[in-house]
User: What shape does this take?
Amino acid sequence: MNERAGLSEQDPLVQVYDHEQLSTIVAAARRGGKGVLCHSYSEKGCHDAVTAGIRSPEHGAFVGERTLREMRRRGTYFTPTLTAIAGLAESSDPVLAERGRTYLPVLERAVLAAHELGVPSPRAPTPPAQRSTRSAARWS
Assistant: This one.
């Protein structure tokens, strides 16, 4: 859905597929008995992915309450991958390190909001606010 966060030359907030394109992909996958997961960081990307019928937005750093509520309604899983985003903050690439430092606290807030709203996740570990600061950054 969005460009990759782990490549400094890409902007993960840039949307690659629009809602119509993703809906076509989801429909084709369903015809084959499969579901679709996608990398998505921006609120628009997450919302378009969820309303197109994907099973889970991966990462979702900037997912908003509107989309989280839609995810709960549809039973769409949220896979925040905090460990991957925390790893960016430790990168030797200054662009990636800044991206990780910027995205991680935003994503942690999204994880807490998703938990409070009852959005399903592939597993249910202890939310970051209930863990130590260091282990919270590793929660995924």
In short: The CA atoms of residues 77 and 122 lie 6 Å apart. DSSP finds six helices and two strands in the chain.
